[in-house]
Design brief:
Layout lengths: L3 E4 L9 H14 L6 H5 L6 H11 L6 H19 L11 H10 L3 E5 L5 H8 L7 E3 L12 H9 L7 E5 L2 H10 L2 E5 L10 E3 L7 H13 L1
Parallel strand pairs: 1-2, 1-4, 2-3, 4-5, 5-6
The protein binds 6-O-phosphono-beta-D-glucopyranose and magnesium ion.
Amino acid sequence: MIQAFIFDLDGVLVDTAKYHYLAWRRLAQSLGFDFTEEDNERLKGVSRMQSLDILLSIGNIQADEKTRHAYAEQKNQWYVEYISRMGRDEILPEADRFVREARESGLKTAIASASKNTPLILERLGIADLFDAVIDGRITSRAKPDPEVFLLAAQSFGSEPVACVVFEDAAAGIQAARRAGMYCVGIGSPQQLSQADIVIRTFRGLSPRQILLQLEDIRTN
Ligand code: BG6
Ligand code: MG
């Protein structure tokens, strides 16, 4: 019996990848190299410091611990500037309606995100009150594919992992959900997210009940 839906934030409920990209590219350019949208794909779902390390390796730049933290801090300042201007119109199509319906049907709902900017994003989108729990990068100590963030979400409402469904757009997040022992719905392309139990393109026209029925099919077959 499924009791809870757990949502990743970036790429599932809102498209923040473009702002991460603008900020990382600005940092790369300030260090004298370019950073493409294709490079940016490698950063989806990856923590801030790991993203920085990937970026520096692309630019072939070595930096000590203190400088790395200064770079990450600078990138985050730019990123916060961009996301502070976001509005409700940047919620991905019908994502808020889907979460609301899940809640109305009696399911618990949570956010499980690597982002330390989660509270700001939820506030800008006006959707903070749709969730029973918010577990994010300020609380966790291990990044996805470690299952920590999802297990903490399940614990927060006292559910067993097997009673939880994770919604994720990144391969590392899907791996984390599987390691947590949860069901997983991938948001995006079936080729890239083949490890998920179900893959959907968008929440548009989809009801929580349809997801539950599909999972029931998987369980009984
Ligand atoms: C994830 C994003 O949700 O959060 C990553 O997919 C990002 O791209 C990570 O690096 C950390 O976010 P932040 O806002 O704490 O830098
Ligand atoms: Mg994501």
